[in-house]
Design goal:
Distance between the termini: 28 Å
Shape: globular
GO molecular function: nucleic acid binding
Number of domains: 1
Protein name: RNase H type-1 domain-containing protein
Helix content: 25-40%
Largest sheet: 5 strands, mixed
Number of helices: 6
Oligomer: single chain
């Protein structure tokens, strides 16, 4: 089973005070994934939220905005169809195979034989946004995971091992959290965060995720 089943638009930030920016983006991310029952990231947020209730000191500070946003959404109400936010996803049949684009719940098949169709779609619809690519992956050691964050516009290539984690979905959430943190640090107003297969990160960023312990 792929840990990264889709490339998805996670968040579009708007202009708001920088002190609230990362919390707002986390809310956007959680709201969009809360509408996708099949998304493993949503399931992992549920698991993390439950664990943090049982063990409040466990992994303190690792992903507070995401968990806080998830708890806010679940305590507020069950999302209904009218609450669904726009979510743009790419499902490649193969890593560079013919993709299938999901736009606002409707599938549009692409005839391209590589990722160019998706990149064109991204540039057409989100040319005003700064692109961040994120992924969590296993190392050769099956009990260790790592993460990668790449932003060509800001010349960011961040990668490393997560010594405290062994779950690949948690590594993906951490990568998204790091991207949100970097957006805040660089005062990025409009951003599209793409949960990207590790192979595409290698193509875009020119590197593999190497084990360098991040504590």
């Amino acid at each position: 089973m792929r840990s990264t089943p889709v490339m998805a638009l996670h968040a579009e930030a708007f202009v708001y005070p920088s002190a609230l920016r990362i919390e707002q983006m986390a809310n956007d991310f959680v709201l969009k994934h809360f509408t996708l029952n099949f998304d493993p990231i949503r399931r992992e947020l549920i698991n993390w939220s439950a664990l943090l209730r049982l063990y409040p000191n466990w992994n303190r500070g690792l992903v507070p905005p995401l968990i806080k946003a998830y708890r806010w959404v679940t305590s507020l109400r069950e999302l209904c169809m009218s609450d669904r936010l726009a979510c743009y996803s790419l499902k490649p049949a193969q890593i560079f195979g013919s993709p299938e684009i999901l736009i606002n719940g409707h599938f549009n098949k692409a005839s391209a034989n590589n990722q160019q169709y998706f990149l064109d779609l991204l540039r057409t619809n989100f040319s005003h946004c700064t692109e961040f690519y994120t992924d969590g992956s296993l190392f050769h050691d099956p009990v260790r995971v790592g993460y990668g964050v790449f932003c060509p516009k800001l010349n960011i290539s961040e990668k490393g091992a997560l010594c405290m984690l062994s779950n690949i979905f948690m590594a993906e959430i951490f990568a998204i959290y790091r991207a949100l943190s970097l957006c805040q640090s660089f005062y990025v107003v409009n951003v599209v965060i793409l949960r990207t297969p590790k192979q595409l990160l290698e193509v875009y960023a020119g590197w593999d995720i190497q084990p360098a312990c991040i504590r």
